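thread: overnight batch results

M.L. [08:02]
morning all. the overnight job finished for the chain we discussed friday. pasting input first so we're all looking at the same thing
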Amino acid sequence: VQLQAFGGGLVQAGGSLRLSCAASGKIVGVNVRGWYRQAPGKERELVATILNNGLTNYEDSVKGRFTISRDIARNTVYLGMNSLKPEDTAVYFCSSKTVYGMVYWGQGTLVTVSS
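M.L. [08:03]
and the structure it wrote out:
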């Protein structure tokens, strides 16, 4: 099973983007889906997660600007990003974690926010 993330691009500060992450098949036992990002020269950091029960969690710097959501029928997770800032520039990765301890990663999609 592969995760494919797409929707990144170049946007001006204050703009919006929506990232999508689709799974090529069913991953058994997924309990957390999330988005991470890695800026140049920095470590990968958590951006947002969504649990099977719909509970969401956000990194402090994106609260109120980003929204994680999912379409269960399409097996897809989204990250809506509004009021983008230059410091949001990073490669964004989606992930799925299972109750068995497995973690699946997408290939990453680049988001560049110009000032």
